Amino acid sequence: MSTTTVRHPAVAGRFYPREPEILREEVASYLSRTESTKQDCIRALGCIAPHAGYMYSGHVAGAVFSRIEVPARCILLCPNHTGMGRMLAVMSEGEWETPLGNIPIDTALAEDLKQRFPALQEDSAAHRGEHAAEVELPFLLLRQPHLTFVPIALGTGQFDPLQQLGEAIADMIAARKEDVLIVASSDMNHYESDAVTRVKDHRAIERILSLDPRGLYDVVTQQDISMCGFGPAIAMLTAARSLGAKSAELVKYATSGDVSGDRDMVVGYAGIVVR
Are 127 and 49 spatial neighbours (Cβ–Cβ below 8 Å)? Predict the structure, then answer.
């Protein structure tokens, strides 16, 4: 008799509420803050959404996920903040527990992707304590109750494997007759002044809006921009371009200083939709 692998929440009660009713109400409030209606929602190939505590970045994530249609299948790319596990780590089986219910891993998608990109290795350790994918799930689940997803944690800062992963994701999606959303979880520049962070962030955002993964890599690495999820963003942009992306839209930008009032040391948050 087989038992299902369940990945338990690592940051419930810290980054977002643990109580289901309070969490549902809070996420719904972030999703409803925009002027978008269901008719305004667009079919997106990919997006970038922040992953800080909801009090700081939830309004930016909500702006992203209320702007797009969320299909039943998603690839969820995140950085590896903990340093645990493999550099290119996927989970292919089981479920992720959230306060709003368990979300199944899309085993068929994950296995297909591993076949196309063998450097992607099965590894739950990289995901166990990592918050960056987890905090996106309540937003995705409220927008798509039938969600299944593939969690991938990226601990490498090298361009080539990120590009190769993006190409493999694009090949996999192109071979299917259904929509698969690619979500890149990332905050922007960390722990500098608000003024410096905004300048640095908009250099990176400019490359993203130009659908330029190599340009994003170069500006982040050469200009000391501490964008934690530049790897997921590069893989997502590479895949989206291969799938025919025509444009990217900055849905919302903010810094933690907008909420805390502390402008001396902030983190930047960008919400971007690629289609």
Answer: no
